[in-house]
Structure formats: structure tokens, C-alpha cells
Amino acid sequence: MVEANAASDEAILVIFTLADGLYGVNVDQVREITSMRDTTPVPNAPYFVNGVTNLRGQVTTVTDLRRRFGLEESNRNDNTRIIIVEPDGVPIGMVVDSVSEVLRMPAKDIEPVPELVTESGGSGIDAEYIKGVGKLGDGELLILLDLEKVLAAA
């Protein structure tokens, strides 16, 4: 389950898109959001690692979440963003299709991942990368990611 703000029993999430899905990560885990930039490839890096970039004087690894999750690749455009997160104090960039908003979500609207998803072992995003599923007011669902697991191999 996503950590909720104890004072208000809600999660504050950065919402972004990948393919046709909506995803979210806790705002506390996000250092900054920047536009797409050039990266330098790193030999023998995992397939989903675009390379490294110089971000404010600090070398930062940039991963492509579409590749990481086995989603179809698409052309980057003016909406493409890099979300910089710092698990374990090391900055890592995640390329996403777009960032839409910062959203306050009541904890009661966040549910655990359904068992069928965790047992299916099908293609797409591994259930181990998912912390929960948020229900938005318009009936849409939001996949809440566990960044430590998503970025573990990066």
C-alpha cells in the first residue's frame, strides 16, 4: 500500500502516462521533472537504460519506463518528460510519455493489487512493481508504482 500522509490520510502523487495507462508515484520520491534531453549510451547497460546525462552537474542514469515494462515504444514528443527520483539518494531519471498533475488521493481510494494480477505472470508490468491501484473520480484507474523495485536493476 502507498504511504499516506498521516495528518490527512491521503497520498500526494505525481501522475504520468505511459502508453494508454495512468501511473503515479509518491511526490516525496520525486526530486524534479524535466523535459527530454540527450543521453550518452552506456556499453552493456540493460536494454531499458537509455544512458546517462549531466543534470545540474551530476551524472544521472536515465531509464525508459516503456522499455522497462515491455510496452510498445513510441516516438518522443514535446510532452515527453524525465521524472528524476532519488531512491537511496542516487538520482535516476525515468522517461515517461507525459506528466499530467500532482494529485491528492484519499487513502480509502487506494486498493491493493488484485490477486489475479499478481498470479497471472502475463506480459506487461510485473505485479511486483505495483504498490496499489487508485480509483479516480471519473472511473479511471491509476497504477501506483513501487519505485524501489522498478529501479532496482537500474
Can you describe what's shown?
- With 154 residues, this protein is mainly β.
- The chain has a single domain (10-150), classed as CheA-289, Domain 4 (OB fold (Dihydrolipoamide Acetyltransferase, E2P), Beta Barrel), CATH 2.40.50.180.
- Helix content is 9%, strand content 44%.
- The protein contains 3 helices and 11 strands; from the N terminus they run βββββαββββαββα.
- It has helices spanning 65-68, 115-120, 147-150, and strands spanning 10-18, 21-26, 30-35, 49-55, 58-64, 81-85, 92-96, 98-106, 110-111, 130-135, 141-145.
- The strands form 2 sheets. Strands 8-1-2-11-10-9 form a 6-stranded mixed beta sheet, with no helix packed on it. Strands 3-6-7-5-4 form a 5-stranded mixed beta sheet.
- β4 (49-55) and β5 form a beta hairpin.
- The longest helix has 6 residues, at 115-120.
- The relative contact order is 0.25.
Task: Give short descriptive properties of this protein.
154 residues, mainly beta, 44% strand
User: Biggest sheet, strands in spatial order?
Assistant: 8-1-2-11-10-9
Order of helices and strands: EEEEEHEEEEHEEH
Class by alpha and beta content: mainly beta
Task: Say how many strands there are.
Answer: 11
Counted by DSSP, the helix tally is 3
Major pleated sheet: 6 strands, mixed
Second-tier CATH architecture: Beta Barrel
| Mean model confidence by pLDDT | 85
Quickly name the level 1 CATH class: Mainly Beta
Distance between the termini: 23 Å
* CATH homologous superfamily annotation: CheA-289, Domain 4
Q: What's the Cα radius of gyration? A: 15 Å
The domain tally reads 1
Low-confidence stretches: none
Query: What overall form do the CA principal axes indicate?
Result: globular
Amount of beta strand: 35-45%
Q: Per CATH, what is the topology?
A: OB fold (Dihydrolipoamide Acetyltransferase, E2P)
Query: How much helix is in the residues?
Result: under 10%
